[in-house]
Amino acid sequence: MTLKYEFPKGFWWGTATSGPQSEGSADVDGKSKTIWDHWFEIQPERFHNGVGPEHTSTFYSNYKEDIKLLKETGHNSFRTSIQWARLIPNGVGEVNPKAVEFYNNVIDALLEEGIMPIMNLFHFDMPMCMQEIGGWESREVVDAYAAFAKKCFELFGDRVKHWTTFNEPIVPVEGGYLYDFHYPNVIDGKRAAQVGFNTMLASAKAIEAYKALGQDGKIGIVLNLTPSYPRSTENAEDVKAAHIADLFFNRSFLDPSVKGEFPSDLVELLKENDVLPTYEANDLEIIKNNTIDFLGVNYYQPRRIKAKETEVNKDVFMPDWFFDNYEMPGRKMNPYRGWEIYEKGIYDICINLRDNYGNIEFYISENGMGVEGEEQYINAEGVIEDDYRIEFIKDHLAWLHKGIEEGANCRGYHLWTFIDCWSWTNSYKNRYGLIALDLATQKRTIKKSGRWFKELSEQGGF
Ligand code: BG6
Description:
There is one protein chain. With 462 residues, the chain is α/β, with parallel strands linked by helices. It has 15 helices and 15 strands. It has an eight-stranded parallel beta barrel, surrounded by four helices. It has a three-stranded mixed sheet with strand order 6-8-9, with helices on one face. A hairpin with a 6-residue loop joins strand 14 (435-437) and strand 15. Helix 8 (170-177) runs antiparallel to helix 9 (189-213). The structure holds 6-O-phosphono-beta-D-glucopyranose. The site of 6-O-phosphono-beta-D-glucopyranose has 14 residues, from loops.
């Protein structure tokens, strides 16, 4: 068969999930609480339908069957995360043998099925005991995280050859310290800047530990890139505003991760506003010397930006002092999640990485479409006919293909997600999986997209 879009040999086809969103068993076998378990205890009303982080799928107890489903849906690679609170329940010190056994079993089962594991080390799941001593505001936590990362490499690095230090490190900064959608619900740009810096330092320290062990794998980071488009490219104020949004939300982690340096204009802007984070003498050197081997790109939506028009409260420093979001007329929206769908964004990312980031090796580590009420698409055989998801993937892959043809160094495509999973405050509102989950019975049913994904992977394109 001739394929219109043929991807390179060995392309990674798969999905991503995370420990806290899929494992369940939140308080068994010695796992301690994360900030999510704690926040749900004190404010359950902040979670959609009052469904908290203990209601995930049951990957912890059902991983063997689930990994068979990975195979059935054509995966040759899969990302999940190791929960710090499960592996080292006190944040530092003693390792939980039950967790070691679990993650060993998962890794071995994946490899037995010929599925390459990509293990991530932090997916928003700060252990509560670490948050109690300051979370990412604390250098003690930075060092504890680096020690946790080193332990993971020692325990699992003989088989795991692709690691990522963080998933979307900007999100806990935005959610936890700017816009109140993660614990600890602080709204303070100065503290946010410190949290961002310390997270970047933690990533570099984990990379340093990995390199020191001399293992023969690769280490990277997963960033959610949101290309920033100005309302008008002819209006200098719009262009400047989009540039500043890009500095805050993309380049704050992208530049130090790939190039080892923060963008000088971001540093200047923080300095002028007296919110530059504090750091120690050799922190910048650690960041400089420990850049990534490969990048994971989560792409969901772009940012549409216009010059600041609305009034701002100047009491507390916020990125929003410098730009407004622009509701571009006619843009295509995912009505359920409220996110714009702009397929070409994935191509623009390819070209940006090719031209401005040394053509770094990357893969699409998340892309996906969250939909409410998918039950309405169930056919007579009980299968969800999610043609909209297949179209969504195809449209993005077509642009990704063009980026690769033009020289972008992209190694794979992972969809968010494998089995419908629990999601932060949205709980089960939006379903993203190739496989439907009945939360009450835990029954898994492959959706039409899951069957199609297998074909896509086996053919190497469509
Ligand atoms: C990414 C995260 O931001 O998007 C996932 O890495 C998350 O953890 C996914 O679930 C989808 O977002 P949401 O909020 O719709 O679940």
